[in-house]
Amino acid sequence: MKSLKFAVLPGDGIGPEVMEVTLEILGKVLSDEGYSIDATHAPVGGAAIDQAGEALPESTVKICEDSDAILFGSVGGPKWESLPPAQQPERASLLPLRKHFQLFANIRPGLLYPELVAASPLKTERIPDGIDMVCIRELTGGIYFGQPKERRDLDDGDVEALDTMVYKKSEIERIAEVAAQTALARGKRVCSVDKANVLTTSVLWREVVTAFFAEKYPEIELSHMYVDNAAMQLARDPNQFDVLLTENMFGDILSDEMGIVCGSLGMLCSASLGLGTNSLGNPFGLYEPAGGTAPDIAGLGVANPCAQILSGAMMLRFSFGLNDIANRIEQAIKETVQAGTRTGDIAFGLESVNTRTMADAILSRL
Ligand code: IPM
Ligand code: MN
């Protein structure tokens, strides 16, 4: 494998800006090691609605199917907010992509360098050494996808709408396995988050997770927490968590909270993996920043590119097996931030630089 074949879906808002410098950085570090990039760009989200009339054109899906991984930017923005909900970029592109490739495991590292503790809204004394945790979120089940999901007019003139939260034992076990593997490579502690005092799906979740770890991974310390408490604990003492394991919607909410507790969504990357393997026999995955399109700064060239670049590093690690190169990129970003070169979202008193300067500083450390 000398040429890395992946699909590039920049999307909307700051997506294209941060994607551009990411590809430059990946290209540089890969060519140093004798690799080249075979990237195919495809429209997605609002950009695809404008170009092709739909958020996820068939041609884009085909390009992804023919690739070994997907590097995704972000989708959505004010321009498309007046469309019917089912046609909006987020719902009509990202969710079907996750479902199509059965990307059930969403891995979101919550990492805050000690040098950046001032960027966290938490008091420094709560996180003197920064934060290091991971959120493992189930991504293709639960209330996002359960059927029925509908809106109906009632005979008495009232209207009702409903979503269905549903989980199978097999879906819970396969995401528990991902949490276990993640924990084994870290602090060997998993906290499973649910709402078993209210929800039937959560009762099953807790039962299955408990049995799974007892049988397969007795060496991992497993704990359980209700989601409301977990939200509170994340804001109180995030470092009590090593690996946080949870279902789709709880994970959506908690990972945003983890993001801000870690300083800025501009630093948060993610990987979404499934059971599928690519042509190299590695996991096929979609890699995207956890933050959104940031319409307020889109087009200004000031967005923090780190989350996108770090997502690229995760892609090299998981889908291409290039762990050393991924480490080099992560190290270069860490050094750049530590040296004080920072975009506005993480500047905190220091002079802030634009996307270009940030990228150049990272490039110079590679
Ligand atoms: C995320 C996003 C998505 C989600 C949206 C854009 C559909 O918030 O990846 O966390 O809810 O999963
Ligand atoms: Mn979210």
Topology diagram in text:
Layout: E1 3-11, H1 15-32, E2 36-41, H2 46-52, H3 58-65, E3 70-74, H4 89-100, E4 105-112, E5 131-138, E6 146-153, E7 159-164, H5 169-184, E8 189-194, H6 200-216, E9 221-226, H7 227-236, E10 243-246, H8 248-261, E11 269-277, E12 283-289, H9 306-318, H10 323-338, H11 344-347, H12 355-364
Parallel strand pairs: 1-2, 1-3, 3-12, 5-10, 8-9, 8-10
Antiparallel strand pairs: 4-5, 4-11, 6-7, 11-12
Helix pairs in contact: 1-9, 1-12, 5-6, 7-8, 9-10, 10-12
The first-to-last residue Cα distance is 22 Å
Mean pLDDT across every amino acid position: 96
Series of H and E elements:
EHEHHEHEEEEHEHEHEHEEHHHH
What portion of residues is helical? 25-40%
- Which class of secondary structure composition applies to the elements? alpha/beta
Shape: globular
